[in-house]
Amino acid sequence: MTTTKGFPKNFLWGGATAANQYEGGYLSGGKGLSTLDAITGGAYKVPRKVTFKRQDGSIGEVTREESLPDGAVGYIDENRYYPSHAATDFYHHYKEDIALFAEMGFKCFRLSFAWSRISPKGTDEINEEGLQFYESVIDELLKYSIEPIITINHFDIPMYLADQYDGWSSRKVIDYYVFLCEVIFKRFKNKVKYWMTFNEINFLRSWAQIGIRSSEPQSKFQALHHIFVASAKAVQLGHSINPKFKIGMMVAYIPAYPMSCRPEDVYEAVKRNRQQEFVMDVQCRGYYPNYQLKEFERQGFEIVKEGDDDAIIAAGTVDYIGFSYYMSTVASSDPNAERSEGNQVLAYKNPYLNTSEWGWAIDPLGLRISLSQLYDRYHLPLFVVENGFGAVDKVEDGEIHDDYRISYFKAHIEEMRNAITEDGVDLIGYTPWGCIDVVSSGTGEMKKRYGFIYVDMDDKGNGSLKRLRKDSFYWYKKVIESNGENLE
Ligand code: BG6
What we know:
Distance between the termini: 27 Å
Mean pLDDT: 96
Number of strands: 17
Bound molecules: 6-O-phosphono-beta-D-glucopyranose
Shape: globular
Largest sheet: 8 strands, parallel, barrel
Number of domains: 1
Radius of gyration: 21 Å
CATH superfamily: Glycosidases
Strand order of the largest sheet: 1-5-6-7-8-10-14-15
Low-confidence stretches: none
Structural class: alpha/beta
Strand content: 5-15%
CATH architecture: Alpha-Beta Barrel
CATH topology: TIM Barrel
């Protein structure tokens, strides 16, 4: 590992986005519908809704936590607003946006492919125009020597696979996913090196994300098993197509601290942390850990495996760990402890930390703790592929003075540097989330912004889509220029 005083020489500074929150063009260029296209906008504490059609033709809606009725299919109601349809329109702005990324000095850019753009139904029918779109994006990045980092699947699935196969409940979807991988691995064999098989695999649970109707935990774990098998097959296939590929997993890492040194609190933290360690154990070590098998036993869950599944999982371990880090959380054995908000987790309030307007705890040292825990446990290269501060930005005379965002990033980058220089962590890159404003995944809002680049659009989809550089844009440019030395 080539660490110097600070960040390694080839450190991958960049930014991250996802198709369903950024790309738009939801029916352009032959794209098919995705589950995410049937999710309405929400607001803070007002859940987004999945809209569907029942067999009798009536229309209904559920939250993402609820099950869809049997036989219901995803449905788009013309009278509602669905943020993914236009999102912040990367589809029509990619050249302009990539030029801005280049101006900041990005070394890499993380984006996801919309499966239904490459294959409208998610089957073996390929939409050349969709592939061509991604090829143009990748070529544009390479023009500026920006390394593309591809998330193969970020929180969505073609609607057809959800409707016809009940999404990842079906093993058939493993074959279709692997087919998709084969197509993109071959096509971009010499243009893309870094891949991630699934975004935040520990959060894949709803119809919107994985196309399954049931909200029963057993069905979710069964679907997750299929996703593990698909990922492991993709890793093996990718390496056979280009042995230089680096194929990673991606986990939402939210370290849980015990509320106190009471052993019961500490044990609660152990249990909570296992919920995220479990997916890493499977994808990095190649087998289900005993604590998870015991948990299945206790819950009475039977995960149906076929023939070679265990061998496939063992042979398809990943090359690196990509993870998102926004916040830490607290585990408590006291059910009456004060609750707090969080990134898809029910958390307890940490009295030592401030929070964002959306209640996410701000904990830079937690990033160093996470880096150390992950590196000590897996000894794999790490990549912070999401981190950032969701905040309301004010435009004043065409300028955005987002010093709160700069403070957040400064503190987190300092802790990454400490993890590298003091703890010897092998960290290969950093791609702050929503480097350009995108629709919030949790709430569907636009006003929860993360970007260095402002996009003029509101929560209802109104706006000119004009791009503006925030103060953080100029600040991050200096950070990259100095390879993380200048954080002022
Ligand atoms: C991560 C997701 O969980 O958090 C992103 O991978 C998401 O898709 C990000 O946008 C921030 O969450 P939110 O709800 O603020 O958009």
